[in-house]
Specification:
This protein has 2 domains: about 240 residues, 3-Layer(aba) Sandwich (Rossmann fold); about 200 residues, Nucleotidyltransferase, domain 5, CATH 3.30.420.240. By secondary structure, the chain is α/β, with parallel strands linked by helices. It is built from 18 helices and 16 strands. Helix content is about 40%, strand content about 20%. A hairpin with a 3-residue loop joins strand 4 and strand 5. The protein starts with 6 loop residues before the first helix and ends in a 9-residue tail after the last helix. Strands 3-4-5-2-6-7-1-8 form an 8-stranded mixed β-sheet, with helices on both faces. It has a 6-stranded mixed β-sheet with strand order 13-12-9-10-11-14, with helices on both faces. Strands 15-16 form a two-stranded antiparallel ribbon. The protein is elongated.
């Protein structure tokens, strides 16, 4: 079927073909903040481009618009114009690779000036979008050494959250670049700096040097989250209160030498000694279950730790329930999760009974949880023990698998561990770390309860391990 284009649209289409900013503003009807416009201008048709920003800068929206521009207009050399071509959005997990796809579906298909360019949208066997230009846009994960990317050619690839891909430089050279050779395609990668100067920084440093030397076809951009005009002013206020290390990394998108109180080396060792997540308890093993309950902007976290040497994280869950109405159904939902975990894994269940945890405790009488109120002195002891467990390599956590995407936002435990700052507990979310440290504190006492030395036993921890009344830890 022929498409009739109004005369008033022809000039706009021609300008959109030449300029991705015009395409984004006029055809996709997206309002960009100034740094996104500046980045789009620099990214246009680069062979290799790196984008490092703070959190909530809008990397996913920028990739969505730039990739849509490439797919709609197919700006390739004339000899490739008649061919069926593909572009790719990839990341360490399928959930992460899907973030841009979800943003596209949520915002682009109801834009009349743009949506007619899309032929079809498919979700199986993996998400992909077909354009009338003859371009397919694939969304695939880069796990298992990129085996899902092999055998295909692309004229553009974006790698999301690149700093989480192990040995990113090697992955680019051996997996990504060969996929671009057929069409002389371009690579863009985006990330919030996460692993200090150990991983993606090596590629960023190479790009920055090549850019300063005015090497053609390369570029990089660093974005400041505070320049996202769409963020609420309270978010900007919280950013400005972060300690310098966290501010540089999570707001300015800078690579920091310091890893904070829990270094990446500690995390690497914790991953090295990990046995892995388990689906069910094993005969003869002893477990504890720990819960930290959400405040207004945080998450409910539950986890199970096996009491062995070293300790092992065996199971976890992290969710953000609707807390707009603190009605009975909300409490029943969270209570059911706590009871289900307790019944499945047995062992003692410890809950943070501070704040709403005190309310939840009244729903859990039948499982007799240990209620822990995090007053300052207890909290400091828990932090001290938790840090010492990591410093001494006494816990195994398969960090590569402990990550998720909720509401289009990527989270991983490694970030939360390396971002942990005891001086900034009111400004950063540390739900999982809090839950983990409570478990370490309890487990340390359990394992030390038969020791002759009382110095290693946290206060009140040894009696608790022997099984006393549920309020033994309440202060």
């Amino acid at each position: 079927m022929d498409i009739v284009i109004k005369e008033s649209m022809k000039d706009l289409i021609v300008r959109g073909f030449k300029d991705p900013i015009v395409f984004a503003r006029e055809i996709c009807e997206e309002d960009l903040h100034p740094e996104q416009e500046a980045c789009l201008a620099q990214l246009r048709l680069k062979d290799h481009f790196g984008l490092t920003t703070g959190n909530r800068w809008g990397k996913g929206d920028l990739v969505k618009l730039y990739s849509s521009w490439l797919a709609a207009y197919k700006p390739v050399s004339e000899k490739f114009q008649g061919k069926k071509l593909s572009i790719l959005n990839t990341s360490i997990s399928q959930d992460q690779a899907n973030i841009v796809f979800d943003k596209f579906i949520d915002s682009m298909m109801d834009r009349p000036k743009f949506s007619w360019m899309v032929k079809d949208v498919k979700r199986s066997p993996f998400p992909h979008i077909l354009f009338k230009s003859g371009v397919d846009w694939w969304f695939r994960n880069a796990s298992q050494d990129g085996k899902f990317l092999e055998g295909r050619s692309y004229f553009f690839i974006n790698f999301d959250e690149a700093d989480l891909q192990k040995d990113f430089k090697k992955f680019i050279e051996e997996i990504i670049m060969p996929r671009l050779w057929d069409f002389g395609g371009g690579l863009c990668w985006t990330t919030t700096p996460r692993r200090g100067k150990k991983n993606a920084y090596k590629v960023w440093d190479m790009l920055s040097k090549d850019t300063r030397l005015k090497k053609p076809g390369v570029g990089f951009f660093q974005g400041d989250s505070r320049n996202n005009k769409f963020l609420h002013s309270s978010a900007i206020d919280r950013m400005n209160l972060l300690p310098k290390r966290l501010f540089n990394k999570n707001v300015l998108g800078m690579y920091e030498d310091s890893d904070g109180v829990i270094s990446n080396e500690m995390c690497d060792f914790s991953e090295l000694v990990a046995d892995g997540i388990q689906e069910a308890p094993q005969p003869g093993a002893k477990y504890i279950n720990v819960w930290d309950f959400a405040r207004s902007h945080t998450y409910n976290v539950g986890l199970t730790i096996e009491l062995c040497q070293p300790l092992q994280l065996r199971s976890w869950e992290r969710m953000k329930d609707d807390k707009n109405n603190r009605n009975r159904s909300y409490w029943q939902l969270v209570t059911k999760r706590v009871k289900d975990r307790h019944l499945k894994w047995s062992g003692r269940t410890i809950i943070d009974a501070t704040g709403i945890g005190d309310v939840l405790a009244s729903y859990l009488n039948e499982i007799h949880p240990v209620e822990l109120k995090l007053q300052t002195n207890i909290r400091n002891q828990i932090i001290e023990i938790g840090l010492s467990v990591f410093e001494n390599g006494e816990i195994g956590i398969p960090l590569e698998t402990v990550n998720q995407v909720i509401q289009n936002e990527f989270w991983c435990l490694r970030d939360e561990l390396t971002d942990f700052d005891p001086t900034a507990l009111d400004y950063i979310i540390w739900d999982f770390v809090c839950c983990l440290f409570i478990g370490c504190w309890f487990a340390r006492g359990y394992r030390s309860s038969t020791s002759k030395s009382k110095k290693k036993i946290p206060p009140r921890c040894a009696p608790m391990a022997k099984g006393v009344n549920k309020n033994a830890l309440a202060v």
